[in-house]
Every structure is written in structure tokens, then in C-alpha cells.
Design brief:
- The chain contains seven helices and ten strands.
- By secondary structure, the protein is α/β, with parallel strands linked by helices.
- It has one domain: Spore Coat Polysaccharide Biosynthesis Protein SpsA, Chain A, CATH 3.90.550.
């Protein structure tokens, strides 16, 4: 190995070691639109585990942002008052870059979540250990995405339902580009992390599939957004199909904070 390569190797190793030694800063990021039902309890379940929260509001007409601003760790709200089209890619790019801007810019991580999602408690409890372990490795962290069904205490596991994953914890970087051609159903992580992902055995739970009426609304929405199934070849009718359905109760070891379930999901 040439002296130049040795010097570069040593420099890279020292940089990586220093990143691991620094205490990770976790910044939760959310893109929201009319989420007054879910936003308060979502932020409540995040706050003990993150340093800051950045929110992009895509033209909400309800009390979503009024509620969000009552939380002390919400340090930045990016508001769009001229919503003409849901631009998921642009929204995610904007909120992640703003998270980098408000970070200490060294060993900062984005924790990506939607207002209607809840993390397994153990994941949140271990998040500092996880980010410390993977600091300097330039990886996106994926966990299992569980669709709650009929009650907040069970989820569906047959077929496609047991294969869902979500990338949601990623290092923030000065260079983050988003080169995805599709408008929806693309990852949270930026293009520099493509094919650089690791799956950890934790769960993320989705509240908006609990009620049958919400499942129908979701199927209708995505069928309207993508009528030719260009963004998802399987289509969206499966969201209401109960053929060969299998449900399992959430194990005690995989529970989330049930106090953060809005009352709406506890009623028929």
C-alpha cells in the first residue's frame, strides 16, 4: 500500500472512530396533512427519545400544527399554504434537509415517521445504541412494518402483509439527493444510501389500517392516485381483501406504548 493510501486509510478510520464516540443526535421528522387526530400522541411517544422534531405541514386545514407547536421539542415547522398537489418526494427531501440544517451536523440521525405510526418500545429504548453502532457506516436502518387490523393489539401476517419493511432511521448528510422517478411508494432514505440498508428485528405499527372504513378509504385514495398501477404493480385492492387472513396478537416483548392510541381507534 502506498504512503498516500495508508494516510487516507488512517484518516478515514479516525473519522469513523470519532463519529462513533460522539453522542448521536436524533431528530424526528414528519410530513403531515390534517393529522389532528394522531399528531399529539405521536409526538408524545417520540419526545423522550429524540432531541428535536422537525415537521413539514402540507397545507393542513385543521388544528394539526396548533397541536404540534405545543410540544417543546418541535423546533421547526415548515408550512405550505399553497397545496395544489401532494408531492411526497419533495416533502421528504425538504424535511430531511431542514433536519440537517438544525442539527449539530455531526453524527445526527433522522428518525422518519408518519403521525399514524407507533414504534415498538424496545426500538425507541435502544435507538441511541443502534445509531452509535452504525455511525460512520452510511447505512439506512429498516424495521418491520406491521399493519394493525380490527384492534390496536394485533396485526396481519399472511402473504404480503408479513413482508412489509420501512426505512426510517438514517444518518443526516450535507449531500442528500433524491433521484426517485415515482411520486409515491419510494423510500425515505436519500439516493446515496441506495442498497446500503440493514434490517433490524423491531416493529413499526400502523394505526390507519385498524378500522375497516379506513382501509376502504385508503384503497380508494391510492386507486385514484395510481389508477394504472404504475407505482405499485400489485395495485391497492388488496388493502381490503381478507382472503386467507391471518392475525397475531402483539407479543409483550414487541408492544408499543398503548397510551398513545387515539380514542378513535378504540371505538367501533
Amino acid at each position: 500500500m502506498s504512503p498516500k493510501k495508508i494516510s487516507k486509510f488512517i484518516s478515514t478510520s479516525i473519522k469513523s472512530l470519532n463519529q462513533k464516540r460522539r453522542k448521536p443526535e436524533i431528530i424526528a421528522v414528519l410530513c403531515v396533512h390534517n393529522e389532528q387526530l394522531n399528531i399529539d400522541t405521536c409526538l408524545y411517544h417520540l419526545e423522550p427519545y429524540v432531541e428535536k422534531i422537525v415537521i413539514l405541514d402540507d397545507g393542513s386545514t385543521d388544528d394539526t400544527i396548533k397541536i404540534a407547536k405545543q410540544h417543546k421539542k418541535v423546533i421547526k415547522v415548515i408550512s405550505s399554504t399553497t397545496r395544489t398537489k401532494w408531492d411526497e418526494r419533495k416533502n421528504r427531501e425538504t424535511v430531511l434537509k431542514e433536519a440537517f440544517n438544525v442539527s449539530k451536523k455531526q453524527n445526527a440521525w433522522a428518525l422518519c415517521i408518519d403521525a399514524d405510526e407507533r414504534f415498538e418500545e424496545k426500538f425507541l429504548q435502544n435507538i441511541k445504541k443502534i445509531t452509535k453502532k452504525y455511525s460512520g457506516k452510511n447505512l439506512a436502518i429498516n424495521i418491520h412494518f406491521r399493519e394493525l387490523w380490527d384492534t390496536p393489539y394485533q396485526y396481519r401476517v399472511d402473504g404480503i402483509w408479513n413482508t412489509k419493511r420501512k426505512d426510517l432511521l438514517l444518518p443526516l448528510s450535507k449531500k442528500m439527493t433524491f433521484c426517485y422517478p415515482q411520486e409515491h411508494h419510494f423510500p425515505w432514505h436519500y439516493s446515496e444510501l441506495n442498497n446500503r440498508e440493514v434490517l433490524l428485528d423491531y416493529n413499526l405499527y400502523h394505526l390507519k389500517m385498524i378500522k375497516k372504513s379506513d382501509r376502504k378509504k385508503r384503497a380508494i385514495l391510492y386507486n385514484q392516485l395510481d389508477p394504472h398501477k404504475r407505482m405499485q404493480p400489485i395495485g391497492y385492492d388488496y388493502l381490503t381483501d381478507t382472503t386467507n387472513m391471518q392475525l397475531i396478537k402483539i407479543p409483550q416483548s414487541k408492544k408499543y406504548n398503548y397510551k398513545t392510541i387515539p380514542k378513535y381507534y378504540l371505538s367501533d
